[in-house]
Design a protein that fits this description.
The complex is a heterodimer of chains A (381) and B (86).
Chain A (H helix, E strand, L loop, with lengths): L9 E7 L6 E2 L4 E7 L2 E6 L4 E6 L6 E3 L5 E4 L17 H4 L7 H5 L6 H10 L17 H9 L5 H28 L2 E9 L1 H13 L8 H12 L8 E4 L2 E4 L5 E3 L1 E2 L5 E2 L2 E2 L7 H17 L2 E2 H5 L3 E5 L18 E5 L3 E7 L2 E15 L5 H15 L6
Parallel strand pairs in A: 4-15, 11-16, 16-17
Antiparallel strand pairs in A: 1-3, 1-6, 2-5, 3-4, 5-7, 8-19, 9-10, 11-14, 12-13, 17-19, 18-19
Helix pairs in contact in A: 3-4, 7-10
Chain B lengths: L2 H15 L14 H5 L3 H15 L14 H17 L1
Classes of the chains: A alpha+beta (381), B mainly alpha (86).
Chain lengths: 381, 86
C-alpha cells in the first residue's frame, strides 16, 4: 500500500486491474485503492509478470503492506523476489485467487465507480462515461445520482467523503504548524510582459490549445528551483534530502469541498504546451477522482494559486515532508512611478512559506527573485 | 439554433462542469462564475465546450461577454446569426 502523503496510515484495496500471470510495465495501473484523499490508481514501479496478488479487494491494510509480488524479467517463477515495502506477514502469506470477473470489471467502468453506483442505486447502463475510452468514473455516477430526485443519499455519501478529507487536511496542516518552523517572504511581480505574451499567444491558438496564466507561474517556479535546489527537497530522518526530480504539486480545489495537491511530474522538463496539457488533465482527473499514486506520493514542492477571483496574497502551510510552498494571489493593477508619473501595471503577489530548518530568508529571497526574473521572459519558459 | 436551444446548451455544459449545482436556481443576470465557483480552468473548459458544440470561435477578448447566462445567450445568438447569414 503506497503512502500518498504524510498522514496516510491505511488504505482500502478496491479492485485489482491485473491478475496473476499478467505482464505489467513500469507506470502501469494495477489497482485502485480508497484513501482519505479519494480513490487513487496505483501504479507499479517495476516491469515484470504478476506472480501473486496478496490482498483481497475490500481489505483495509496499513501503508507499507505489500499488495502483490511481481516477477521481474529473467527471474524464475517462485524465486525470491524483492519488494519495495515490507509485507505484513499475515497478509503476505495469504495468496488470493483472482477470478476473471474481477478483472473484467474495469471496463468500461472503474471499480470505484461501480461500488459507488451500487451504494447509490445508480443504473450504470444509463450512465455516460467521461473517462478515457468512455470509461465510467465516480464523478459520472455522482452526476447521475445528483440528477435523481432522491438526492439525499448522495449528499450523505459526499458529506462522509468530505469529512474524511477535512480530517486528513487537518492532520497534515496541524502537524506542519507543530513541527515546521515556517518563515514567510513576499514580493510583487510585474506581470506586464507575461500578460502581453499570453494574450498574443492565445490570440494565435485554437481554444483547445490556449494557455492559462497559472501554467507560466508553475513553470517559472520549476525552473527557479534549479537555482535554489534546497527548496526542492524533503525533511526526513531529521535532515534535508534533496530531490533529484522537480515535481511541482499544484493545489486543486475540489468542487465538493477540500483540496488535493498532486504533482506535475518532471515539471521543469515539460515545455509550456506539454505542461498546459498535463495540468488540464491533472485538474480533470483530480476532480473526477482518478489520480495516480505517483502523482500524490511524489510532489517535491507545492504551488497554490488563488486565481483571478482570489485574494491578493496567500501564505501557505507547508505540506510535510516538503519544505516549501509558493503562493500566488490574483492578478491586480499595481501603481508604480515611472518618469515622475504614477502608472498602473498588471502584477501578482508571490509568497514563499519555507522551512527554516532547511533554508533561510536570504535563499528564499533569491528564489523569489529568480521566479520574478523568469516571468519577465515568458517566451523562454 | 434558437435562443432557447443555445440557453439549453449553455446550461448543459455548465451542469457538466459543476455537477453539484442546482442550475434551476441560477440567476441569469448575475455572474455565473461567482454563483457556481467557476475557476479559470473550468472557464477554459466551458469555452472549449461551446466552441465544439456550437462551432463558435470565441477569442479571449470576448470572455467578458460570457459573464452571465443572459449575456452568454445574447453573445452566442449574435455569433450564430452572423454565421448563418454569411
Amino acid at each position: 500500500m503506497p503512502t500518498l502523503g504524510a498522514d496516510m496510515t491505511v488504505g482500502t484495496l478496491l479492485a485489482w486491474m491485473k491478475k496473476p500471470g499478467d505482464e505489467v510495465k513500469r507506470g502501469e495501473i494495477i489497482a485502485e485503492v480508497d484513501t482519505d484523499k479519494g480513490v487513487i490508481e496505483v501504479e507499479v514501479f517495476t516491469s515484470g509478470i504478476i506472480e501473486k496478488l496478496l490482498i483481497e479487494p475490500g481489505a483495509e491494510v496499513p501503508v507499507g503492506t505489500v499488495l502483490a509480488i511481481i516477477r521481474e524479467p529473467g527471474q524464475v517463477p517462485g524465486a525470491e523476489v524483492s519488494t519495495a515495502t515490507a509485507p505484513s506477514p499475515a497478509e503476505a502469506s495469504k495468496p488470493v485467487a483472482v477470478s476473471p470477473s474481477q478483472v473484467e470489471r474495469r471496463v468500461p467502468i472503474s471499480p470505484a465507480a461501480k461500488k459507488l453506483a451500487t451504494e447509490l442505486g445508480v443504473d450504470i447502463s444509463r450512465v455516460t462515461g467521461t473517462g478515457s475510452g468512455g470509461r465510467i468514473q465516480r464523478v459520472d455516477i455522482e452526476r447521475a445520482a445528483f440528477a435523481k430526485p432522491s438526492g439525499v443519499v448522495v449528499r450523505d455519501a459526499a458529506d462522509e467523503r468530505q469529512e474524511r478529507m477535512r480530517r486528513t487536511i487537518a492532520a497534515a496542516m496541524a502537524r506542519s504548524k507543530r513541527e515546521i518552523p515556517h518563515y514567510y517572504l513576499s514580493t510583487t511581480i510585474n506581470m506586464s510582459n507575461a500578460m502581453a505574451w499570453l494574450a498574443e499567444e492565445n490570440l494565435k491558438r485554437p481554444v483547445v490549445d490556449r494557455l492559462l496564466f497559472g501554467v507560466l507561474l508553475i513553470k517559472a517556479v520549476a525552473l527557479a528551483l534549479h537555482e535554489v535546489p534546497e527548496l526542492n527537497s524533503v525533511w526526513k530522518d531529521e535532515k534535508l534530502n534533496l530531490c533529484t526530480e522537480i515535481n511541482v504539486g499544484v493545489a486543486i480545489s475540489l468542487r465538493q469541498g477540500g483540496l488535493v495537491a498532486p504533482a506535475l511530474l518532471g515539471t521543469d522538463k515539460q515545455n509550456i504546451d506539454e505542461l498546459m496539457k498535463t495540468f488540464r488533465d491533472l485538474v480533470k482527473r483530480a476532480r473526477a477522482g482518478s489520480l495516480r499514486s505517483s502523482e500524490l506520493s511524489e510532489p517535491t514542492i507545492t504551488v497554490t494559486s488563488l486565481g483571478e477571483r482570489g485574494a491578493e496574497s496567500v501564505f501557505g502551510i507547508i505540506y510535510p515532508p516538503q519544505v516549501a510552498i509558493i503562493g500566488f494571489g490574483r492578478p491586480m493593477e499595481w501603481p508604480r512611478t515611472l518618469d515622475g508619473q504614477i502608472v498602473l501595471r498588471p502584477a501578482i503577489k508571490a509568497t514563499l512559506s519555507a522551512d527554516h530548518r532547511v533554508s533561510d530568508g536570504h535563499r528564499g529571497s533569491l528564489f523569489l527573485a529568480a521566479v520574478d526574473r523568469l516571468l519577465q521572459e515568458p517566451g523562454k519558459l | 439554433m434558437t435562443r432557447d436551444e443555445i440557453r439549453a446548451t449553455v446550461l448543459r455544459i455548465l451542469g457538466e462542469i459543476a455537477p453539484e449545482a442546482d442550475l434551476t436556481q441560477l440567476k441569469p443576470d448575475v455572474s455565473f462564475r461567482d454563483q457556481l465557483d467557476i475557476d479559470s480552468m473550468d472557464f477554459l473548459n466551458f469555452v472549449i465546450a461551446l466552441d465544439e458544440e456550437l462551432d463558435v470561435r470565441i477569442p479571449e477578448s470576448d470572455y467578458p461577454k460570457l459573464s452571465t447566462l443572459d449575456a452568454c445567450v445574447e453573445f452566442l445568438s449574435s455569433r450564430n446569426t452572423a454565421k448563418e447569414g454569411s
